[in-house]
Amino acid sequence: MKHILLPTDFSANSIHAIRYTMQLYENSSCSFSILYVQKESKLIVDVLMATSEKTNNYQSEKKRKKKELNELVLQLKEENKNQNFTFKVFFDTNSLTDALKKVIISENIDLIIMGSNGATAIKEAIFGSNTLNVIREVDCPVLVIPENYNFKPIHSVLFSTEQCKDFKTDKIKPLTELLKLQKASLSILDINSNQEEKQQHKTALATLFLEIPFDYYSIQHLPVPVAINAAIQLLNFDVHALFIESTSFIDRFIYGTEDDDISYGTKIPLLVLHA
After folding, report:
1. Hey, which end of the chain has fewer CB within 10 Å, N or C?
2. 2 closest CA partner among 113, 109, 144
3. Cβ contacts of residue 12 below 8 Å, gap of 6+?
4. Where does residue 60 rank: exposed (0-12), middle (13-18), buried (19+ CB within 10 A)?
5. Predicted TM-score of the model (pTM)
6. Is residue 144 within 8 Å of 226, Cβ to Cβ?
């Protein structure tokens, strides 16, 4: 059984990502953990005011959100008749990343699926601040669903790599499972590797994807996000997957360099794996 964690703030985008997930796994056996995290700003106000009225208001809000979570589950069950779907709901008052980490451990989570928007800062407008924090701080695969992206069968997946090292077979499992689930083809984009490195990378990738055939492409002298965008636009992939290969990789991936504006615009789901 697949164990999937679905954070929600009840926004249209987060509910859309949940519905995408239901369609993606419609023929699978899955346990879904749906998590709502109370906003920290409201918690701070409650603690500082420390009055019985504020405490009662907080308890009422907590009860209301739990009721909304349960109503969401009932709605999902009505929309999805798969008898192999099970649901649990979680309400937490930690930060989003801490709350996710708790559920990941308690529910043996395989994958987080969440929407991409919700940012307030310009440099976070592609993913949203919450999504970026999850990618950076939570050691669990994350499938990011772009805003308003409707589900369609996955026929082709792009896996991009810049350094192609320190990959472990168990860490690639979410990608290989997705490929098998959707019977999709795999293409690999090796970015900014010289001739000697290309051969080494091909050998490493053949070992990593031992039973999965793939097409290999290489591109040089382009910023990472520009190279990826070009490949996606030219070859019409349905999902893009990558490893977070170093602490700075995600920023180079999104922005190109520290001084650049955003160079990567995710128009297809993005599967983020941690090496």
Report:
1. N
2. 109
3. none
4. exposed
5. 0.87
6. no
